[in-house]
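Async update (no meeting this week)

Hi team, since we skipped the sync, here's where things stand on the single-chain job. The sequence we agreed to prioritize is pasted below, unchanged from the tracker. I ran it this morning and attached the output directly underneath so nobody has to dig for it. Comments welcome in thread, and please keep replies under the output.
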Amino acid sequence: MKIPKSELTKKINKLKSIVPKKTTMPVLQGVLVKDGYFIASNMEVTVKAKIEGIGKETFLIPEKAFDLINNLPDGEVEIKKGRDNTIVIKAQKVRNTYQTMEPELFPAIKELDGCGNAAIESKRFLESVKKVSYAVAKNAANPIMAAMCLQATGEYLNFAGLDGHMLAWDKIEYSGKFELLIPRNAVEKLQALELEGELSIKYNDSEAVFATDNYEIHTRLIEGAYYNYKSMFREMPFHITMARMELLDAITRVRTCIEEKVPVRFDIKEDNFDITAKDSRADYQETIILQEKISKDLMMGFNVNLLIETLKAFTDETIHIRVADQKNPMIMEAGDGNFKAIVLPVVI
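Output:
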């Protein structure tokens, strides 16, 4: 196989996060070259990256070769099978031989039987995935919280993530019907691959495949029914419209002054939106003037980090906020109403 170093490093760096550090199957600790694809798998997520012009050669590039590949001189790189389960990597005056494993030991990728099909423009798909992925739980005892819900209802394709403290929901127009619970690690890989063009989605009850012209992402699905997230966006009595970056900048300044677990307090009176936070080293105060007055004084407390993550997920210049009191969540909504988020309060 002969390939430009720039193309080789690009694909290896896209795939290496899939390669497991610890596994009972040592053959997974490398990238398989087969049938014009680079393939990496951790048995939960498998990614195939298409490589043009490399023929039908089959061998395994071991993980220990990744650093050398990244540090090779620019230009053409040749990788070929050697004797006794070895590969040889050559570039200009560099030559090194690595011990590897039989590529036939690498788990075969199954074709989905009896599957459903969907298609969507990958850029629009990834925009929604990015908006809600921050709310998918990172470490959850309940596997359903560690999944993004992709739910087509016949009118919209809904994207939802929640972790028990915050909830995000985005939707785009779509005519199909299906529901997939995609594990967080697959969601992260979908974003990292920089997919382009039309995205094809094939699925059955236990697996899904997301494919473009250049990549395929095979993932297991989380079993079970997702939460009724739509019902959590209840009507609240008080509505506030704010400049998103003004609020985000203020909350970011708060975080630089206080300890991590100290909550931020909002006191809203008429058209004053007072932000305060206090601990042993700081007593922070800032006021934002609202565009309109509200009819009742309100006080609420929130986790600073959750607010920042939520505000960063929005892209609108202004956001619409709905609140009730210190016991109810804050609901944020984009101008077009398609993207919504919830942050639960904390006790002050």
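Quick observations from my side:
The chain has three domains: 2-105, 116-230, 233-343.
The radius of gyration is 25 Å.
Reply here if anything looks off.
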